[in-house]
Amino acid sequence: MKRAPAVFVLALALAACDSYGLGYHLIEAERRGIGDLYTVAPQIEWSARRKGKVEVWTVDGPSLEAIHFFKGLADGDVLFEVTDQEEGPEFRKHMTASEVMEFVVDSLTSAGAAKIEATSLRPAKFGDLQGFRFELAFLSSAGLEKQGLVVGAVADEKLHMIMYLGVRAHYYPKYMYYVEALINSIEM
Amino acid sequence: MTPAKTVACLLLMGLTSVSCATPRGGPGALPDIEPGARPALESDEAGLWMAVDHVEERLKTSGRIVTDPGLNTYVRDIVCKLAGPYCGDIRVYVVQTPHFNASMAPNGAMEVWTGLILRAQNEAQLAYVLGHEIAHYLRRHSVQMWRDARLKTDALIFFQLLASAAGYGYVSDLGQLITLGSIFAFSRDNEREADSDGFELMVEAGYDPREAPKIWQALVEEREAAEDRETFIFFATHPTTGERIATLESLADEYVADREPGVKGEERFLAATLPFRATFVHDELRQREFARSQVVLDHLFEAGVNLGELHFFQGELYRLRDDEGDGENAVEAYLEALETGHAPPETHRSLGLLFSRAGAVEKARSSFERYLRSRPDAEDRKMIKAYLNELE
Predict the structure, then answer these.
(1) C-alpha pair distances (Å), B25 with each of B29, B31, B90, B117, B269
(2) How far is C-alpha A35 from the geometric centre of its chain's CA atoms?
(3) A63 touches chain B (CB under 8 A)
(4) Angstrom distance (rounded) from CA B317 to CA B298
(5) Cross-chain Cβ contact A141/B62 below 8 Å
(6) Are A40 and A31 in contact (CB under 8 A)?
(7) In chain B, what are the helix, strand and coil shares in percent, each to the nearest 5?
(8) Which residues of B touch A154 (CB under 8 A)?
(9) At what angle are helices B242-257 and B188-204 packed, to 10 degrees?
(10) How far is CA B283 from the centre of its chain?
(11) Which of B120, B103, B80, B125 is nearest to B12 (CA)?
């Protein structure tokens, strides 16, 4: 009972931050859990925000670069909640890596990305799991060139993915070393 | 997409499109635009043009602009044929988005969305829609609308909206655009005028006017099939009624009764657009609005060109929709594609995925192997090899 008030206050403080619309909190470079499935070593400090099954980490701001963690999307979940009119495609539990790539590409399109190319789909380890990996190149609706990297796996009919997106000039390569190290640090 | 940008986009999208209550010749109607003219610098119209010029600058570098010179030249040539002496005043931008739309800004910037190109069955149908928009531009309906709106609301807001607008044309927040569409919708008088003037432009350019009502009819059919009828951006600014389609039909019949009907331009249209059809159909399908997409595919099947590709896309529709029985329907469609002898190699990959899911190991293996043989440099070859290993 002595600890409960401290937790309660912390929760309130976080809620207050969100309610003021800030939403971001500091992630220190110490191993931490991502959902219920795995932990990662962040490598550097990031600003992070969470909403539902998605967690976004960034240094310069998500329009420049960001790591998106999708923490166990279930059958029927969408990748991005866009608007009421355009929700985008839904994940299906029986999807193969090819179909997940299609799901990601179509979701990014419904979120405004243009001329997306997805390349080099191949098997890759996601921690201990046998998963997949592919690269992305696309234009934002304003015509800015962006790149992306996606790694993931379907475990117990749920999709776990790490998607790193950034502006091709400067920002995407700037944190690539840390992103690769983070991915390699996945532990179940 | 901020509300300000949304409203500005909508304004610009349908700027031809707007409520001019007064048709040409009526009291208060604006004189037609003159070729090569720009409004006097001190005029309100010049302010409107300046704001729209800013937006056009952003449009030029938009991620959705189609840069292919062949397709751009083809569309521009149609516009020039229709617009005659105004050809030099019009700049055409082809925008890659699966939605049906065309629009003109008062400064002569025209957008043609690839969803329109996909749905036109020939050059005459495309020309009619473009002629309709040019008619709005020639009659300066958008300027009239803006002046009418200024009387009712704060003029400064419109300037501010236009000046701050970005993302002219396609925006990802279609919902907001559609919701606001009715504010900027054409009046019935505007529409009738654009219909009849667009009709005149079309026949003067030598096109068969009987094609004009067909493209509206196809769009109405698509809307009736749609699960969500509110997601048609074109209808938001162009209310379409059966009466207008019937009027076009009788105008056309009357015209051809004692004249040569003019050309449909099917071969020219196919030569220019077929190389892009797969991309445009793919864009259409990835929206996952299957009822509408089926209507679009049905019309493509009626035209009967490159059936191998169409059967493949029919299969893709079933595979993506994934309703009960769609797995079998998809396989059937892919097999029909293969029978034509001109199916895209991805047909084998999709078959492999479905056979694999159904536990048909030999068929899955054979399909994946055929895919790799047809596409030895496939971007996903390592993944396909992994599937093959799992099947062993």
Answers:
(1) 6, 8, 24, 33, 36
(2) 12
(3) no
(4) 12
(5) yes
(6) yes
(7) 65, 5, 30
(8) none
(9) 30
(10) 12
(11) B103
Strands A46-51 and A129-139: unpaired
Q: Which residues of B touch A151 (CB under 8 A)?
A: none
A98: nearest CB among B230, B320, B353 = B353
Render pLDDT for B31-77 as a digit per residue (tens, 0 to 9).
Answer: 788 888 888 888 877 877 887 787 788 888 888 899 999 999 999 99
**Rounded-to-integer distance, Cα B59 and Cα A104, Å:** 26
Q: What's the complex ipTM? A: 0.85
* Distance separating alpha carbons of residues B375 and B356, to the nearest angstrom: 19
Report the alpha-carbon distance of residue A169 to residue B392 in Å, rounded.
Answer: 44
B91 φ, ψ (degrees, to nearest 5): -115, 125
Could B231 and A84 be called an inter-chain contact, meaning their C-beta atoms sit closer than 8 Å? no
pLDDT digits (tens, 9 = 90+) for A99-133: 999 999 999 998 889 999 999 999 999 999 999 99
Question: Is the pTM higher than 0.95?
Answer: no
- From first CA to last CA, the distance across chain A in angstroms is 31
Each residue of B7-26: pLDDT tens digit?
444 444 443 333 333 345 45
Taking the C-alpha atoms of residue B13 and residue B55, their distance in angstroms, rounded to an integer, is 11
Give the integer Cα–Cα distance in Å for B241 and A76.
37
Residue type (1 letter), B332: E
Residue B329: which residues within 8 A CB-CB, separation 6 or more? B315, B318
Determine whether the interchain pair A132/B173 forms a contact, defined as Cβ–Cβ distance below 8 Å. Answer: no
Phi/psi-derived region of residue A23, left when phi > 0, alpha when psi is between -120 and 50, beta in every other case: left
Quote the CA–CA distance of A143 and B115 in Å, as a whole number. Answer: 20
Residues in chain B: 392
In whole angstroms, what separates CA B289 from the centre of its chain? 16
Asked if B231 and A141 come within 8 Å (Cβ–Cβ), the reply is no
Interface of B with A (CB under 8 A): 58, 61-65, 96, 166-167, 170-176, 178, 228, 230-231, 283, 286-288, 320, 322, 349, 353, 356-357, 379-380, 382-383, 386-387
Phi-psi region of A61 (alpha: psi -120 to 50; beta: other; left: phi over 0): left
8 A C-beta contact, residue B223 and residue B170: no
Q: Give contacts of B382 with chain A, Cβ < 8 Å.
A: 120-123
For B340-359, how does the pLDDT look when each residue is reduced to its tens digit (9 = 90+)? 999 999 999 999 999 999 99
**Residue written as token pair 């309703």:** B323
Write out the two tokens for B313.
């896309």
